[in-house]
Design goal:
Elements: H1 2-18, H2 36-57, H3 59-67, E1 72-76, E2 86-93, E3 97-107, E4 114-117, E5 122-133, E6 139-148, H4 151-159, H5 181-184
Antiparallel strand pairs: 1-2, 2-3, 3-4, 3-5, 5-6
Amino acid sequence: MKARALLPRIASAALILLMPGCRDTKSNPNSNSMLPQQEADSMTRNREMAIQSGVRDWPYPREFNRMFPHAINGISYYTGGIGESKWYSKIGLYGRYVLIMAVPIKLDDARTNIVFMGNPEIISLGEVLGSKLNANGSRSYSVNRIALLSSNDWRRLTEANGNFDVLNIKIETNKPPVEGFNEAWPSFSIF
């Protein structure tokens, strides 16, 4: 009778040991299983290497960063599990404008280098018209797209070293910044 009572406990313990992620990898240095934090750190390093390869090796990100040295660069859908990976570069300008570029990319198998970059799917310039403090303490922004640039427009802007006048786009450089803009623009996505 005692053996029968122990059988479910032994079976449960065996199942726990066989389940992925339930092994104690700290006590077994020969384990091939990565700890979740190590896996996250590795993915972060790989993503950073891929971003560096974009700025270093590909014309659109390199030009964007040359003209706008404080740009934020990244890769959306980095793992490729949910959607196609896309490069993005964005910059906040003069306390009220946001320029965003999105370009389809392909990564190598290690996901550390960009091996293909297409033409921009979107190059959008928006102006933040104002902000409003919400009851919960968050801030809402009113954004107006003032230009959707083509690849040809991008080439002309690059040749003019980021001067939007070449595209007949008037950028107000003397207006006071929109309240909260500098904290908020990095979180803006395509508009």
